[in-house]
Amino acid sequence: MATILTLAGDGIGPEIMTQAIDVLQAVNKKFTLNLTFESGLIGGTAIDATGEPLPEETLSRARAADAVLLGAVGGPKWDTIERSKRPERGLLKIRSELGLFANLRVAKLYPQLANASSIKAEIISGLDLLIVRELTGGIYFGEPRGIRTLDNGEQQGYNTMVYKTSEIERIGKVAFDLAQVRAKASGKPAKICSVDKANVLEVTELWKQTMTKMQESQYSDVALSHMYADNACMQLIRDPKQFDVMVTGNMFGDILSDEAAMLTGSIGMLPSASLDEEGKGMYEPCHGSAPDIAGQDKANPLATILSVAMMLRYTFKQEQAAQAIEQAVSDVLDDGLRTVDILDSSEADLRQVGCQEMGQAVLAKLV
Ligand code: NAD
Ligand code: IPM
Ligand code: MN
C-alpha cells in the first residue's frame, strides 16, 4: 500500500488535477498498484484557508506520503501580499523541505504534434530531450536576499547565486547517470551539455570545473560539453536535436525548460519529476496556474497526466503502467483530439476539446 498526496493548488490546478487523478485511479485498478489518495492545500488556496502558502499539515503529510502530485500555484490575487507569504514560496518550501534537488523535465515531441509547435516540423521531429535542473539551490535560495534602502535613499534589490561543490556533484551524478541510461536505451553514445555562464559568474565557473572533474574521474563514457546559457537558449531553437541531456542550475533550468516546452507544441505538454536522493518525489507539470484560462475548461491536462507516468516510473518502478499512460496519450492524439494550445488549425481532421474531455479520453484508453 502506498499513499499519494495530491496538491491541486490554484488557477487551472484543480482542473488538471481532477483529470490526472482519474487517470491515476484507472491505472491503479488496471495494474493493481494498491495506491491510496489524500489531498492537501498549497499556494493561494492554502493562504486563503490558513494564512500560510504551505501549512504544516500539508508538509507533514507530504513527508509521510510515498509521492506527491502537484497542480500549480499562484495568481494575481496573491501577487501583492508580503513575498514570504506568497503561493510561490509554498512551492519553493516544499521542494526544499523534502530535499527535491533534482528536477527532470522531459521535452519529447509526440509526432502527432509536429505542426503544433511554432518551430518548423523538421527541426523538432524526433526530439527527445531531458533537462536536469538543480531545484533546491542557486539564486532561488541564496542568502542574502531582499530589498534594502541605500544611504542616498534609493532602493536596491539583491539576490545571491551560490552553489557548493557537493550540490553540483549530486545534480551532476543524476545527469551523468541518466545520460548513461538513455544511451543504453537508444543505442546512441551518452552525452551531456552543462549550461553555465562561466564567462561572467564565478559560481558557474565552479559548476563547469566540477562537471569536468566528474567526467574525467567517473564518466569517461559520457561525452561532456559546456555551453553558455545565452547560446544554449539560441541553440535550443536553432537545432534542439544536438542535445540529449542538459544539466544546469535552478534559474537557467527554469528558463530553458519553458523554452524547450514550445518545441513539443505547448507548455501544456511538459511533465516533470522533482526527486530527492532516495528517488522519492513530487511530480508537477512545468507550467503555472495559467490564470488567463482558469475555470474555463481550456487547460491542457496532458503535462500533469504525463507527470503521473513519471511518478509511476521513478517512484514506483512501474514501467509498464507508465508506458500505458504515455501510450494512451499518444492514442488520444492519434484520434485527433486537441486542447486549444496544441491545435493546429490548418489540419482539418482535428477536434478541439476541453480539459475534461481530453482527460476522460485518456482515461477511456486505459480501462
Ligand atoms: P503559466 O505557465 O501559468 O502560463 C503561461 C501561458 O501558458 C499562459 O498563456 C497560459 O494560459 C498558458 N498555459 C500554461 N499552462 C497551460 C496548460 N496546461 N494548457 C494550456 N495553456 C497553458 O505562467 P505565468 O503566466 O507566467 O504564471 C502564472 C502564475 O503561475 C504565476 O502566479 C506564477 O508564479 C505561477 N507559476 C507556477 C508554477 C508552478 O506552480 N509550478 C509554474 C510557473 C508559474
Ligand atoms: C516552475 C515555476 C516555479 C519556479 C515558480 C512558480 C516558483 O516557474 O516550477 O517552473 O521558478 O521554479
Ligand atoms: Mn517555471
UniProtKB/TrEMBL annotation:
What InterPro entries does the database record attribute to this sequence?
A: IsoCit/isopropylmalate_DH_CS, IsoPropMal-DH-like_dom, Isopropylmalate_DH
- Top enzyme class: oxidoreductase
Gene Ontology terms for molecular function: 3-isopropylmalate dehydrogenase activity
Asked whether the UniProt record includes Nucleus among its keywords, one would answer no
Keyword entries, A-Z: Amino-acid biosynthesis, Branched-chain amino acid biosynthesis, Cytoplasm, Leucine biosynthesis, Magnesium, Manganese, Metal-binding, NAD, Oxidoreductase
* Co-factor remark: Binds 1 Mg(2+) or Mn(2+) ion per subunit.
Kindly list the residues the record flags as site (Important for catalysis).
140, 197
Name the pathway it acts in. Answer: Amino-acid biosynthesis; L-leucine biosynthesis; L-leucine from 3-methyl-2-oxobutanoate: step 3/4
Q: Which family does it belong to?
A: Belongs to the isocitrate and isopropylmalate dehydrogenases family. LeuB type 1 subfamily.
- Give the protein's function: Catalyzes the oxidation of 3-carboxy-2-hydroxy-4-methylpentanoate (3-isopropylmalate) to 3-carboxy-4-methyl-2-oxopentanoate. The product decarboxylates to 4-methyl-2 oxopentanoate.
Protein name (Swiss-Prot/TrEMBL): 3-isopropylmalate dehydrogenase
